[in-house]
Write a structure and sequence with these properties.
Elements lengths: L1 H15 L4 H8 L3 H13 L4 E4 L5 E4 L12 H10 L11 H14 L2 H11 L22 H13 L1 E7 L7 E13 L2 E8 L2 E6 L3 E10 L8 H13 L4 E8 L3 H7 L2 E7 L4 E8 L2 H9 L5 E5 L1 H19 L6
Antiparallel strand pairs: 1-2, 3-4, 3-7, 4-5, 5-6, 8-10, 8-11, 9-10
Helix pairs in contact: 1-3, 1-5, 2-3, 4-6, 10-11
């Protein structure tokens, strides 16, 4: 909304001082022409914003001008900054609102607190993209249009219709009563009810979505922690194959990306980890572990060890003889 953008523009100028129209446009994700119109609107409303002409010019506020927002102390503001650090702003498509909120938080603090907050926030790093083993975290992509519709349905309590494409299942259309949204390790899920049954959907698999006018049939109060724990336990108890496997730490994420679920994890000797993971079936488990070669070893079940051994023997037999003539 334009009103929110005007407030953000004022807060940007208060925090950074002189800024060009291009810089403001980049921060606010609008065109430079829109910024110029907003500045004219602020000037007409009596906000003391003025232009410095020339090569190093830009737009500034008169010294001493500020908006008023009270009630936040330094540690409260620091807590908000920490919670919103790293990739947190991308969760559920709220990066732009988060940036706007952070500007308002900073502007609410006294001048001395703002300086110390900048230094404190710079010393906290939450969920960086790369860990100590140089493994890059790749969050799933969810289309903005899909996220906006799903989020609106959850918050307004309306039914949601969407097209869904899950592996091994024909693409189909679902109509559900949304309960809430959960994000875990870069993956986001919609918890919903469909025809009276609990359902969980990966947002990255929703191709298109639309909020319906009908009110969702769902409990008035919700405990997402409890619901997620119950659905996780139920998922792990379903008819999957459980695999006890050792894998090199550098290949851990590859195996987890292929698994349906992780039951437990613990460090093993040297640079290995031991995982208890679930796969769809024996064929799925064999394929996933085979990709890792000698960087993984199945400890159980014995049926999977035999399957991998027989597969390796067939490969040895194939290549043990002379090269065939073509």
């Amino acid at each position: 909304m334009r009103a929110d953008r005007l407030v953000s523009l004022i807060l940007l100028l208060r925090r950074r001082g002189r800024m060009t129209a291009d810089q403001l446009a980049n921060e606010l994700e609008v065109s430079s022409r829109t910024v110029l119109r907003d500045i004219d609107a602020l000037s007409s409303a009596g906000v003391p914003v003025y232009a410095d002409r020339g090569r190093h010019g830009g737009y500034s506020l008169l010294p001493g001008f500020r908006t008023e927002l009270t009630g936040l102390n330094h540690d409260e503001a620091l807590a908000l900054f920490t919670a919103g650090a790293g990739r947190a702003g991308t969760v559920f498509g709220l990066s732009a609102p988060l940036a706007s909120a952070m500007r308002k938080v900073v502007d609410a603090l006294p001048d001395g607190h703002r300086t110390s907050l900048d230094d404190a926030a710079a010393r906290f790093l939450v969920e960086p993209e790369i860990d100590l083993l140089s493994r890059r975290a790749i969050p799933e992509h969810v289309a903005e249009t899909v996220m906006n519709e799903v989020r609106a349905a959850v918050l307004t309590g309306r039914r949601l219709r969407f097209d869904y494409a899950a592996p091994g299942v024909p693409r189909g259309r679902r109509t559900v009563d949304p309960i809430g949204l959960v994000t875990v390790r870069g993956r986001s899920y919609l918890l919903a009810i469909k025809a009276g049954e609990d359902r969980t959907y990966r947002l990255s698999r929703i191709l298109s979505a639309a909020v319906l006018p009908d009110a969702a049939e769902r409990p008035a109060q919700v405990d997402l922690d409890r619901i997620w724990a119950e659905r996780t336990a139920r998922f792990l108890s379903e008819d999957h194959i459980a695999v006890d496997v050792r894998v090199r730490s550098s290949r851990r994420d590859e195996l987890l990306d292929a698994a349906r679920a992780v039951r437990s994890e613990e460090n093993a000797e040297n640079d290995w980890v031991r995982l208890d993971v679930a796969f769809e079936d024996l064929r799925h488990a064999s394929w996933a572990v085979w990709q890792l070669g000698s960087d993984a070893e199945v400890l159980a079940p014995e049926t999977l060890r035999i399957e991998l051994r027989d597969r390796a023997l067939r490969l040895v037999t194939r290549y043990s003889g002379p090269t065939p003539e073509v």
